[in-house]
Write a structure and sequence with these properties.
The structure holds two protein chains of two kinds. By secondary structure, chain A is mainly alpha-helical. Chain A has helices at 3-30, 38-56, 68-93, 100-122, 149-171, 173-183, 185-190, 195-220, 227-242, 247-273, 279-288, 294-308, and strands at residues 62-63, 66-67. By secondary structure, chain B is an all-alpha fold. Chain B: It is found in: Cell membrane.
Chain lengths: 319, 392
């Protein structure tokens, strides 16, 4: 594969990470805790879409190799993820009287409950949506780019969702309230903003985007009850790289982390060809920069960012 | 202590949750005894469970020294547990890809040294971070450790794991042949279902002795450390790090000491696990191990060692109870059921009793923070001691 090919793969994977990281960052800044159940919210969205798609079928025509029924399933996946998150907020998080660390620990319990319920219902095996896998687009293959129409659909939908969020944050009343609340919750409340309602909307938006990310992750790879939890740390890496509390930072961080993740095989090729001296360093780098360590590289970047620039690329409060 | 001489007064002195725990523990112990006597629960398997409970208690002790004492959110418990297990397994096992065949005591020392180095490697970058960043960063670094163990086949055998691990007492003067030399016993409590005590039983009882020694020594060290001025500084850091700094304490150094201490205890749990299970694989570094230890600590009460002991027993009950339930009653896959129970326990504790079931008592620094200051508290530590002896 060429550089272009890896970049194209990176773009597809980045779209999914961006969808996940925006929601995590929104909840982090407005509900004020690190939500460890965010990855499993993605799983919830993916399985809701699986059930819906299995029930409604293709519904006739198809766009970009995806039947209409799949888009309906996508909407249902988003809705279910949002409803589950709002229900959790109402039932669990809101009545709690603890600090953000307590909420963090609680969210781990929530993550386990989501995953356990899905695993009891669907088993722990990998599944797929009942959609025929496509061949790569012929016109792009000469350039070494092997993307399918499905990948184009993932990137396109992600762009639409992110653009919609941008409009919502910048030009609507709710967006202004959310930004005010992320900036200073107390000030927002005394200015007459109903912070509880804004928080609920935050959950709807964050979990909805996560649900969409989960549906696409299932299309990109496969579905399994662990899919979201396995991606959670990568998403955290993206959010931290971008700067916690900044939605645009999360987008940038998600894009970078997704790219780095998919470009790892390319980097390992570069390391192989470079004459690094001394030999032991060369050997160590060759074995560490490899596809098995793609996630580990993201985690190390995350820790490095926390140490060197804890506010990330965008810095705090740039929502 | 006074439970033997004056049981009524001793029980009246307990707080309500303590009575509850005592009652439930007693009922549970009776249930186990009945299961043992009727032969429903094999004595060897029972001892294996006791060993496992001791191992989780050790893990919780380690986490307690970090989270309970100092307030460090360490989500890399599994990494330290795993490095302890792999350190001793790689030193002692026949199938070890590197050294192998050493005395288990060498394995113990190597495991502790490795855990010490790893604690420094993880601690130096992360302990300066804010609490929630520490949680995320330590979970990420634990995953890095797991990926290295999984992928560096020349060092760890990769996903195949390490087999052929000897028992901990291999090469010791008397104890190495103790299980074989002990006679097989046949106890008939209920006619028709005799209980056989054979070599495997004696081997398991040696393991239980080992974990009791590990856990007992750790418990004593931790209790002493907790009451010392050093422990007081840690508690001050937990409550208010700025205050500790204002008092001239180097909080980073204290946090590092507490982190290393806890990590060594977790590695000790890993060493025991190696010689209990006789197989170590990369699955043992799964993050779920970390959260088992967390559940044990927050359920028992952060900062409370007897709470950690209680939490360890609950974890084993959940782990093995779901397996038992699957065999006997409900045909539900035990893995998700276990996950569900763990999740529900976390949420329920945080919702209804965030301080845990057996929170540490009479050790808080400010009297105003003690809720029942008027109830004539006994001298400090007495209650802790008593609880520690009675919980089982």
């Amino acid at each position: 594969m060429t550089v272009l090919g890896y970049l194209a793969n990176g773009l597809v994977f980045s779209s999914i990470i961006v969808l996940g990281s925006i929601g995590l960052s929104l909840v982090y800044s407005i509900a004020d805790f690190a939500n460890f159940a965010h990855g499993d919210t993605m799983t919830v969205g993916a399985y809701a879409a699986l059930v819906t798609f299995g029930a409604v079928g293709g519904l006739g025509g198809a766009v970009l190799g995806l039947p209409y029924g799949f888009f309906l399933a996508l909407v249902v996946g988003i809705a279910v993820a949002a409803v589950v998150a709002v229900g959790t907020e109402k039932l669990v998080y809101e009545p709690l009287d603890i600090d953000s660390i307590g909420l963090l620990i609680t969210s781990i319990g929530i993550a386990f409950i989501y995953r356990a319920v899905i695993q009891i219902r669907f088993g722990s095996d990998f599944t797929r949506y009942g959609i025929q896998p496509l061949r790569p687009i012929e016109a792009l293959v000469p350039y070494g780019v092997r993307v399918t129409l499905h990948d184009v659909a993932i990137v396109g939908s992600a762009v639409v969702l992110v653009a919609g969020l941008h409009v919502l944050l910048q030009y609507t009343d709710l967006g202004r309230k959310m930004r005010a609340m992320a900036d200073n919750p107390d000030l927002a409340r005394v200015s007459g903003i109903r912070t509880k309602r804004v928080k609920l909307w935050t959950w709807v938006i964050g979990a909805g985007l996560a649900g969409a990310g989960g549906v696409f992750l299932g299309l990109f790879n496969q579905l399994s009850p662990r899919m979201g939890f396995n991606l959670l740390l990568v998403i955290f890496a993206a959010v931290i790289l971008g700067g916690i509390g900044s939605v645009y930072g999360a987008m940038a961080g998600g894009f970078l982390i997704g790219m780095i993740n998919q470009l790892t095989p390319f980097f390992s090729g570069v390391v192989d060809s470079l004459p690094i001296w001394p030999g032991w360093l060369n050997a160590a780098l060759e074995s560490l920069v490899s596809i098995e360590y793609a996630n580990a590289i993201a985690f190390v970047i995350m820790v490095a960012v926390l140490l060197v620039r804890p506010n990330g690329i965008a810095g705090e409060g740039a929502t | 202590m006074s439970l033997l001489s004056d049981p009524e007064a001793a029980i009246a002195d307990l707080s309500r949750p303590e009575k509850w725990v005592l009652g439930v523990s007693a009922a549970f112990a009776l249930f186990l005894l009945a299961a043992l006597l009727t032969g429903a629960l094999g004595p060897t398997y029972f001892l294996f469970l006791v060993g496992l409970a001791g191992m989780y208690a050790l893990l919780s002790f380690g986490l307690n020294a970090q989270w309970g004492y100092t307030g460090l959110i360490n989500f890399s418990v599994a990494a330290f547990f795993g490095i302890g297990a792999y350190g001793s397994a790689l030193m002692t096992a026949d199938s070890s890809p590197i050294a192998g065949g050493f005395n288990p005591l060498v394995g113990l020392v190597v495991a502790l040294v490795l855990a010490f180095v790893l604690a420094l490697l993880i601690g130096i970058p992360t302990l300066r971070l804010r609490a929630d960043y520490l949680a995320i960063a330590s979970l990420g670094l634990a995953e890095v450790v797991r990926l290295i163990v999984l992928n560096e086949r020349w060092l760890t055998n990769g996903s195949a794991g390490v087999r052929g691990i000897p028992s901990f007492f291999e090469g010791w003067p008397v104890l190495s042949t103790f299980p074989e030399t002990m006679p097989g016993l046949r106890l008939v409590v209920i006619p028709g279902s005799p209980i056989l005590l054979e070599t495997s039983f004696w081997r398991a009882s040696l393991n239980v002795l080992l974990v009791l020694a590990f856990a007992g020594a750790t418990f004593l060290v931790l209790r002493r450390a907790h009451q010392s001025p050093w422990g007081r500084v840690l508690r001050t850091i937990r409550s208010d790090e700025d205050l500790a700094r204002a008092l001239g304490k180097n909080t980073y150094s204290f946090k590092m000491q507490s982190f290393v201490l806890g990590s060594l205890i977790m590695a000790l749990a890993g060493v025991f696990y190696t010689h209990l299970n006789l197989y170590v694989g990369p699955g043992d570094l799964d993050p779920i191990t970390t959260f088992y230890a967390w559940v044990a600590v927050i359920l028992g009460g952060s900062g409370s060692n007897r709470g950690a002991l209680f939490g360890g027993i609950v974890i084993v009950t959940i782990r093995e109870g779901t397996r038992f339930l699957n065999d006997v009653a409900l045909p539900i896959d035990p893995a998700p059921l276990r996950l569900l129970l763990i999740g529900v326990v976390i949420v329920a504790v945080m919702r209804y009793r965030p301080q845990g079931i057996l929170p540490p008592q009479r050790e808080l620094i400010w009297p105003s923070a003690v809720d029942d200051a008027g109830s004539d508290p006994p001298a400090s530590g007495v209650r802790e001691q008593k609880g520690g002896g009675d919980d089982e």
